Every structure is written in structure tokens, then in C-alpha cells.
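Exercise: predict the fold of this chain.
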Amino acid sequence: MTTPRRNLQQATGLAFLAGYVDTLGFVALFGLFTAHVTGNFILIGAALADASQMSILLKFLAFPAFIAGVAGARLFIVAIERRGGPALALALSLQLLLLAGFMVFGMLAAPVGAAVSPYAMTAGLLGTAAMGVHSAISRLLLTQLAPTSMMTGNVTQIVIDSIDVLRGVADSGTAARCMKFFWTILAFGIGAIAAAFAYRGYGFIALLAPILILSGLIVLDRIDAGRVSDDAVAP
């Protein structure tokens, strides 16, 4: 069921989650970007130029982990859709499972030292795979929303639309599009700030916040699916 209210809940919830998880991974795991492939390429280059960067292997492995998350989500969603199952709820459940693994292995790795331990490595790769699933869900199942994990394009679009409004050449959908991107950007920023403070206060258990967000979105999707089913059988 797609309604403006549900779209707003999904967009802000998933954008907050993306900003939160990406920031927590960066703060906790040697500057790792779990949802930002471009950032990891930059960090790989910097690490190659500085032999003291002990986390270079984690940066290298993050890229295939992200790809594995996207590929796995694609195949998983295709299989669910062929069977007529609840693709969104189950795909979000897959992301939840990976984030739970991120949290558990992060807690096992704590306190994170100067070198990347096997537990820390596993935590980072699970977090990156989880955000690969997140990106795949955005592209495959929630195309009506603004992207929830990559803000560069969102900021570019809202600036273009704002300039068109000021120029007086905006079309009828410009205002609605501005609001769609605005709430996503705001939620991502709040999530990023919240994660930095939450990790410093609570460590990896702070990942319970995005896990709870995913749980809520899964419940909402199942409720919507139940309503659609009831409407279909109603006389």
C-alpha cells in the first residue's frame, strides 16, 4: 500500500537508518563507510599511500561485501516475487539480520584497538553487506522514494528545484519533489549525528536503534499487506 504517509515513514526511517549506520561504522571501525562506496575508494587510495593505515584490508573487502549484499538482495527479492511473497518485509528482514550480526560481532570486538581483529573485520563486512541490501531495496522495491543512503544526488536535486522556484519556472510537481528530498536529507543528517553520540555513549549496542526501525517498518508492511488481502476477499 503506497500512500503519502507511508512513503514519508519509509523514507525518513530508512534515511535515518542509513545515516546512522554509516556514521557508526565510520566512528567505530577505522573510518569505514558501510553505505558509501565512493568514500571507501577514497580511503583505499589514502591507505595505499600511507603504510601505517592498518585497516586497508577492511576497506578493500568492503567493496565485494557491498556487492554481495546487493546481489544477494536481488536474487532474494526475485525468488520471493516469483512465489508471490511479501518481498519488502522479507528483504528488510534480511537487512535486519545482517545489522544484528554487525552489532553482535562489534560487541565481541570491543574495545576496538589500533589493528583490525577478526571480530571487527566480520562486523564491518556484515554492516557493509547490510547496506548493500539497503541500496538494493531502494532501487528495486521503493522507487517512489528519494534515495535514502546517497545524499549527493538528493542535495543536487533539491538545490536545482529551489533555484527553479526562485526563478519562477517551477512546474506543478516541483514543490512536492522538494519536500520529498528535504525530509530524506534531514532524516539522514539527524541519523548521522545521533549515531556519533550513541556509539560514544553505548558502543555497538547502539545499533539497536536501526534494528528497531527496521522492525517497525516490517510490521507496517505486514499490516498493509493484511489490509490489501482483506480488501481482496471482501464481498
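Check your answer against the key: The helical segments are 4-28, 37-48, 56-82, 87-109, 118-140, 151-167, 174-202, 208-233.
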